[in-house]
Specification:
Shape: globular
Helix content: 40-55%
Number of strands: 7
Number of helices: 8
Radius of gyration: 18 Å
Strand order of the largest sheet: 3-2-1-4-5-6-7
Bound molecules: nicotinamide-adenine-dinucleotide
CATH superfamily: NAD(P)-binding Rossmann-like Domain
């Protein structure tokens, strides 16, 4: 594994599961010390333990990203415990039809990571932030309907909160990239297509659901968590030193049509 992140310190939100865990592990494999934070403290601790077992440096703590002060504290604690913070990944998210919850976690949570994180990185000479948006940050979603009971109609506002929150993440990414462009803080987003994680398991575990999702991607398959982790590792590394303000689809061609 490349050592592109040797000596760097990263904080990853939602690191107790799925994409957050995969990114935390990948950053550690590339040499970074990683603070794993999640609402699910056990999950965050498991990820940190996996990193330590593989010979990496990590720590874990519980964090609810909807609490602005707690996000600021977590960033400061990472800086103190693991050394100078240079990388922040705002990944924690929920897939829910509930407006307040979805906007609080997916949009406000990312905003707090940006508003506190970008300034902290700037004060320390620079760094990189990656926000995990979605193809739902670029386009509307279509639903398979496989989870509905016979005769049940999908709610009229089914993916509205999720799509709005993820479009907001793309907007925040661009705005903070512009705001911090001259302070050596790069801010980018990844827009994953459907990836096998606990978030999508409810659909992928049903054969018609999985087939429906596969057919949405021109490559004919869903993605794996490590395919998002490798894009994130690129974006936070010096290989992406002139890349800022982009919303990068990593989606098997989903957003190409
Ligand atoms: N899996 C996909 O297909 C897919 C596609 C596009 C975008 N995404 C996005 O990727 C991100 C990660 O999703 P995933 O698939 O790994 O899901 P996941 O459910 O496996 O993991 C999400 C993690 O976020 C944590 N979390 C939830 N609310 C939180 C809060 N308030 N504070 C802190 N942590 C909280 C959960 O505890 C969980 O560990 C999300 O933002 C999601 O919207 C996922």
């Amino acid at each position: 594994m490349a050592d592109r992140l040797d000596g760097r310190v990263a904080l990853v939100t939602g690191a107790g599961s799925g994409l957050g865990r995969a990114m935390a592990r990948r950053f550690a494999d590339e040499g970074a010390a990683v603070m794993c934070v999640d609402l699910n403290e056990e999950g965050a601790k498991d990820t940190a333990a996996q990193i330590a077992e593989a010979g990496g440096r990590s720590a874990a703590m519980r964090l609810n990203v909807t609490d602005s002060d707690a996000v600021k504290d977590a960033l400061e604690r990472t800086d103190q415990e693991l050394g100078g913070l240079q990388i922040v990944v705002n990944n924690a998210g929920v897939a829910s039809p509930e407006w307040d919850l979805t906007v609080d976690v997916n949009l406000s949570g990312v905003y707090y990571g940006l508003v506190h994180g970008a300034q902290m990185l700037a004060d320390r000479g620079g760094g990189a932030i990656v926000n995990i948006a979605s193809v739902a940050g670029l386009n509307a979603l279509v639903s398979s309907g496989v989870a509905l009971a016979e005769g049940e109609q999908p709610p009229p506002d089914r993916a509205a909160a999720y799509v709005a929150s993820k479009h907001g993440v793309v907007g925040l990414t661009r705005q903070f990239a512009v705001n911090f462009g001259q302070q050596n803080v790069r801010v980018n987003a990844i827009c994953p297509g459907y990836i096998y994680t606990p978030m999508t398991a409810g659909t992928t575990e049903i054969p018609e659901g999985e087939a429906f999702l596969q057919a949405l991607h021109p490559m004919g398959r869903l993605g794996q968590d490590n395919e998002i982790a490798s894009a994130a590792a690129f974006l936070v590394s010096d290989d992406a030193s002139f890349v800022t303000g982009v919303a990068l689809p990593v989606d098997g061609g989903y957003s190409a049509r």
